[in-house]
Amino acid sequence: MKIEIPEQAKYIIKTITDAGYEAYVVGGCVRDSILGRTPEDWDITTSARPEQVKALFRRTIDTGIQHGTVTVMLEKQGFEVTTYRIDGKYEDNRHPSEVIFTPSLEEDLKRRDFTINAMAYSEETGLVDLFDGLGDIERKLVRCVGDPSERFDEDALRIMRAIRFSAQLGYTIEKGTGEAIRELASNLCNISAERIQVELVKLLTSDHPDNLRMAYDMGVTKVILPEFDVMMKTPQNHPHHQYNVGEHTLHSLLEIEPDKCLRLAMLLHDMGKPSTLATDAEGITHFRGHPFVSERIAREILRRLKFDNDTIQKVARLVRFHDYGNGVEPDLRIVRRAVSKMGEDIFLDFLKVKRADVLAQSLYQREEKLASIERWRELYQEICEKHQCVSLKTLAVTGSDLIAAGKQPGKELGELLNRLLELVLEHPEYNTKEILLEQAERAIEEKDRHSSS
Fold first, then answer.
1. 26 and 59 in contact (C-beta within 8 Å)?
2. Cβ atoms 260, 318 nearer than 8 A
3. Which of 118, 224, 416, 447 has the most CB atoms around its CB within 10 Å?
4. DSSP code at position 90
5. Which positions ≥6 away from 194 have C-beta within 8 Å?
């Protein structure tokens, strides 16, 4: 087997081996190369110690020198070079208490998580595959190196990584590895929210986001996302639905593009349904007001998992508005008001969310629902083509214009701008500076009359 290694990585390996040490590309880059994928990074493992690596290259960064990792910089690109190592005892289900450097490649590969990630390669030696990672690639299997209980006990994040790799590659989790996940899933409570977030996003944006069902079956979501477990137990007995809330959510994830915010919105859009469940006399379930409850829960979950504020705000708005306009026959005025209400920046994503939601429901009125969503999109396109105003950003007057016309700055100025926007949403032809300044004058005169009467 031949793997095409980038010239810069080849240069690093040659420099190290010419100095009398061993060096290989290792891990994910080997796996991805075998799979015909383009590796994101080319990591190198070596028998040379960190100080010996540093002595061989002009520019290095001590990115993780306590763990044996030095980043070699070549023309603004960094390559991680890590010394063969044996990890000491893990005391927190995440970090080894000590790292012991070793001259043995086998010892280094033995400490890695899964067989498909425990292969090394050099042009001189070829593929080093001590644990049949190549066979597991052929079998489409995620299997731990050695005893899976030991691997997960060392680093509980590997539990999430197993499910994530299964989702990204479309692989099955090997039986013993799966049993160990079920046994040790509770150890995920020792893993930082930031690391859980990274793995969850990779899972959600994979080709198989519905592998979250596997995480549920194995007891993983019970630890990292207990709200999802409640959804999996919440029925939807209604003509518009064919799945329970959790299964509907899993199907909706498959109906939207693999964008982080869109997939998070689908994951969270119905989080409020369990707490708003009501059943009528005919046994039909209803979830009145659930979008607002879902938004609150979504914000709590995203903050708990340490997402950035921009992601939280965008996803929360998509969750709040995902049911907006249901059953409404739209026209230009209605769509202008909708865009103004939710924000022009998310409107097209809002339509994508609605479409995914519909495609994960029952077939009842599906064609009518999809046609309505398309009508919303066409009307929005017409609004854009006509350059109609939908926000203060495109209002023909600004606060500065009003101040220049003699209006006082402050809270009342903001209120006046919003009144003018309301007027333009109803009458887009009024969006000229001359008309709006005239309307502002009238509004002030009217207010003054009310105040004096």
1. no
2. no
3. 118
4. B
5. 305, 306
